[in-house]
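In response to the reviewer comment on reproducibility (Comment 2.3), we provide here a single inverse folding case reported in full, input and output, so that an independent group could reproduce the run without further information from us. The structure tokens appear first.
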């Protein structure tokens, strides 16, 4: 349940910290005092749309936090666990800046506004004053009946079956219409893949072939250069070895003292002679053992020519051929697989249709059974609300075409007076009757909700007197099962509450601010007296308010 609500610089609220309790809490205040502000702030934490008007005038941002106790809310804990969010608490926070930008957090972790909205559905339900209008729409009737029948998850699964069936059916139709094009594409791909299979270009082969071609094409020139280098090293008249030999001989005839001075030079000349002899041997060995291979060069040229020809044919670079081969092979496998097999796809469509119809029939049976019980429960509440002569029923008829929600059309039907035929709820003329019928339906639906916290925003509009007291009793009964927050203008409803939250607007230093506070027993009497008798509180009005509060408390015990 909602245990704390903290509001900072929102609308005309500067700072507000509220501790909330289980049971029924009445929220009252004069018209325009800002009762909707609290619900608006809560709505932001539940993912509703924000705008710049949310920020108090002259402030940079509005900051709202809502803390929930989820110890008994398994669905909420599972939602948090699935997203790896902390589960030791449930704190929703929303910040809206003066520029209209907003940020959201759940348990201190940044999230999207849609995440707030999704989690909020497991935490609290809001029955607004516009619920009367929503109840005139048949999709609302279907949703409420499914909730009452415990079929919400089954209907969600049915929707998945429906969309899968429709997607398979659309795919089959598309393939049937484009069958010739697919066949032509398949034949082309077979030819192209077979050609690339025959080429069988291995990984790294292109680079190896190009290196080998370069080496083979230049080999004759390389051999000539090697022979020339070997000749330069030889001991003929102009060879390096012959010249070194003469140099060593000449220096060897120098005086001993000079030889000592040239010792390093003589040593290096000796080493150079050894190195050149080794180089000469290596060069001669290379020339003698290396043979020209024109046949291999022809083979390499032919292989490279074939690779470049096929690359040009497919308008790609040679190095892109392997990736092209893989892509075309994958596409061919797809076209030759079950996805493009009309017979196999037709069987898939039939299986998807059968799965949908089987699930839809089971849901229809559950709806038919629940419709009778739902109608009887609403009928009982109508009698309690002074509409004992009205007849309420849930009419179920088959749809002309299957839908994601199933095969049924659900309508709430009402006959306000005996002998009159039942008509759709949207045809009810009396606003007062509609508000009571709407309240009866909401009360019955709320009793079967998995969410223990509910907000009723002026759902008692259009009722008064004894009926208003009964409305309060109904809401209190719901509060005994969880937490009910109800915004009301009726003292008969407020008197039934376990707790009473009062909202008032004050002007301070040319600034208008809203204050909210839980009332004690004396404060409740004064507020009920104001609601009963207006601005001036007479002793008689106060006594009436005390009597009303005492009577409701006594009835509750």
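Designed residues, in position order:
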């Amino acid at each position: 349940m909602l245990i704390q609500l903290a509001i900072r610089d929102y609308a005309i609220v500067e700072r507000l910290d509220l501790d909330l309790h289980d049971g029924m809490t009445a929220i009252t205040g004069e018209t325009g005092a800002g009762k909707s502000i609290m619900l608006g702030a809560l709505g932001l934490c539940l993912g509703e749309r924000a705008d710049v008007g949310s920020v108090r005038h002259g402030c940079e941002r509005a900051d709202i936090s809502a803390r929930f106790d989820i110890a008994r809310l398994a669905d909420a804990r599972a939602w948090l666990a699935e997203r790896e969010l902390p589960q030791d608490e449930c704190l929703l926070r929303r910040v809206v800046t003066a520029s209209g930008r907003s940020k959201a957090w759940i348990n201190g972790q940044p999230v999207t506004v849609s995440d707030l909205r999704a989690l909020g559905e497991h935490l609290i339900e809001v029955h607004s004053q516009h619920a009367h209008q929503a109840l005139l729409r048949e999709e609302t009737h279907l949703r409420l009946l499914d909730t009452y029948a415990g079929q919400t998850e089954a209907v969600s699964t049915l929707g998945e079956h429906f969309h899968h069936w429709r997607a398979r059916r659309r795919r089959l139709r598309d393939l049937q219409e484009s069958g010739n094009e697919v066949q032509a594409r398949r034949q082309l791909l077979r030819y192209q893949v077979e050609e690339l299979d025959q080429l069988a270009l291995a990984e790294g082969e292109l680079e190896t072939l190009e290196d080998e071609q370069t080496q083979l094409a230049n080999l004759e020139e390389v051999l000539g250069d090697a022979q020339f280098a070997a000749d330069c090293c030889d001991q003929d008249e102009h060879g390096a070895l012959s010249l070194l030999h003469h140099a060593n001989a000449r220096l060897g005839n120098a005086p001993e003292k000079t030889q000592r001075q040239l010792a390093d030079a003589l040593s290096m000349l000796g080493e150079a002679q050894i190195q050149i002899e080794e180089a000469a041997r290596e060069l001669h060995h290379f020339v003698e053992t290396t043979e020209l291979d024109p046949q291999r060069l022809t083979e390499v040229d032919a292989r490279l020519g074939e690779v470049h020809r096929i690359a040009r044919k497919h308008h790609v670079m040679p190095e892109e051929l392997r990736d092209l081969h893989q892509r075309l092979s994958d596409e061919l496998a797809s076209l030759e697989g079950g996805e493009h097999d009309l017979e196999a796809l037709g069987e898939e469509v039939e299986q998807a249709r059968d799965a949908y119809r089987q699930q839809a029939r089971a849901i229809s049976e559950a709806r038919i059974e629940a419709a009778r019980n739902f109608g009887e429960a609403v009928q009982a509440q109508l009698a309690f609300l002074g509409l004992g002569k009205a007849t309420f029923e849930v009419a179920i008829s088959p749809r002309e075409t299957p839908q994601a929600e199933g095969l049924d059309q659900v309508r709430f039907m009402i006959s306000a007076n005996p002998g009159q035929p039942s008509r759709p709820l949207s045809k009810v003329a009396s606003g007062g009757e509609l508000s009571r019928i709407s309240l009866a339906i909401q009360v019955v639906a709320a009793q079967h909700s998995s969410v223990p916290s509910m907000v009723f925003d002026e759902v008692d509009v259009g009722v008064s007197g004894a009926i208003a007291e009964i409305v309060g009793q109904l809401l209190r009964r719901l509060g005994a099962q969880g937490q009910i927050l109800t915004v009301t203008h009726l003292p008969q409803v407020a008197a039934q509450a376990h707790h009473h939250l009062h909202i008032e607007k004050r002007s301070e230093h040319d600034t208008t601010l809203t204050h909210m506070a839980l009332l004690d027993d004396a404060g409740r009497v004064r507020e009920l007296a104001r609601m009963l008798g207006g601005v001036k509180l007479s002793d008689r009005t106060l006594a009436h308010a005390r009597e009303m509060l005492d009577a409701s408390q006594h009835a509750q015990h």
